[in-house]
Structure prediction request, 245 residues.
Amino acid sequence: MRIVSCKDYAEMSRVAGNLMAAEIIKNPSCVLGLATGSTPIGAYEHLVELYKSGDISFKDVKTYNLDEYRGLAHDHDQSYHYFMNENLFKHVDIDMKNTHVPDGSNPDAEAACAEYDKMVEEAGGVALQLLGIGNNGHIGFNEPGSVFVGPTHCVDLTESTIVANSRLFERIEDVPRQAYTMGIKTIMSAKRVVIVANGEAKAEAVKAMIEGPIDPMCQASILQLHPDVVVVCDEAALSLCSSVK
Ligand code: GLP
Prediction:
């Protein structure tokens, strides 16, 4: 794991955005794996700036998002479809046909998940996967558990995730209890992984990811086995890592 310690959120966002931009410059028709949550918003803002200044184009870029709540319509303001449109897609020249988010509106979990894996595979896999990390160490919506699950699958969200994500919903009862998420196999198959985290609230999860045992109770710890991971964090998120100066 390569650790990049940034002084604040703005620097973290610039570094992560630049790594993604570099991928697009290297291969204008690259396949990007995208993440939601509040952490990557700054990286998306940086990418939009680079697009507006003419440094990059998304014209031929393909994107596959990590996850989506089960049961939310695409235009629900808490759906990840909506999030991606608002925070990136509608601001750049991406062809919406090339953007993909698991279909949470399809109640047939098995079909929705199998179809998603097939699409990622047919696209040739992900070149760069952007990730955030949950307070409980989840990546995508791969929640702590007894195993690492390989394929895209339907998960029951844990209480801690429901509570953490309820800040974005009107009432905690409105938070969906299930989600479709890319599994660990697709994430680990990406050629490069960039994971972002900021703030003290993420420090425990970041420590477990970098310094803990590889343990499905912290799903992000599997990334220790990936050959090309860049961990981009602010100082607060890295504050409990004794191995990071
Ligand atoms: C959600 C998403 C994750 C994200 C996590 C952290 O649960 N499924 O992909 O990493 O939240 O979100 P935030 O960046 O808002 O802390």
